[in-house]
Amino acid sequence: MAVRTTVLSSAWRNVWTAVPDIFLCDCTFCSCNASTKSDSSEASKFVTLVDMVLSLHKGPLDTFTIHGTHNYHDVFARWIYKLSTKGPEDITIKLTSGPQYKIPSSLFSISHLSFLYLKNCSISLPKKFEGFKLLKVLKLKAFSSTDSDISNLISSCPHLDEVHLRYFKGINCLSIQAQSIQILKIEGDFKDLRIDAPNLVIMYLRLDRVEGYQSVPVQGDMKSYLKQTFGSLTRIVSLNVGGSYPRPEAFTRKGIWDQDETEIQTPKLDHLTMITLNDFRGLDCEVAFLGLLLSWAPALEEMKIKNIAEDTTDERIFKSTKKLLAFPRASTTAKIILT
């Protein structure tokens, strides 16, 4: 049930304070041709509404959602503190105006969270953070954090089923260590990726930093990068990849080596049936990457190459496809489809 600004009857005043699901949006106050002065008035009215809701709500709160396009930095910490006293299970915060909102430590004290969606925020874990023990879904978009904070946040949630990390800054080495994750979607700016998620079934990976990602250091034929990224994904069924790829020499087919140059076991993606590659350009690094996946996936049914880049010539596509078709495949039934 959405809480909206209306002239409340006395009966409604008693009812809304006990509704379990609250949705607040400042679009109620917005007008298309609003002036700066009216913008300020609209924001002020929305602040009053949110304060009233958080102060007067008396019943148990299951879901709290807030959307806003004005600047609420000066009251944000107060709102989150009041919200933390209600102990909701489901929180969605989308406040898109101005710089990122620093998430107050009070949010990390909400012990019964099962769903958390934050947009346009800065995440810094408090020193005494003990984790969200019941959290199942974590979605972060347009956020900033650090290697250690995002890693600790995820690893401190033992029941996570689904994680989305999109459009982030400040993270160089993205480390995902979670035994329970089944769905993982990553789209952002980083240099290195390490995944230990043995129950992962679906992974979407888009690599935004082309230059940085192609400069992954290589020793021997391959470092722990591929081992850590794919070696633990023993249950993955669907893999969707787009963006940029490590440089070609990172994918030599002589073997894969760990930090001390000792040969390690080639990853086997025994349950992988579907691979989707987006933004294909026909580059050697893309072809080499796909060639490795073909050799690792004995149950593969389809490899789809989609959204071929507009500046890619027909000649390059022909040559790259010819190379790809020549690679040995672990699966005798795998089809390669260009769309």
From TrEMBL:
Domain of life the protein comes from: Eukaryota
The name this protein goes by in its record: At1g61320/AtMIF1 LRR domain-containing protein
Pfam families in the cross-refs: LRR_At1g61320_AtMIF1 (PF23622)
Organism encoding this protein: Digitaria exilis
Annotated ranges, domain At1g61320/AtMIF1 LRR: 65-328
Taxonomic lineage: Eukaryota, Viridiplantae, Streptophyta, Embryophyta, Tracheophyta
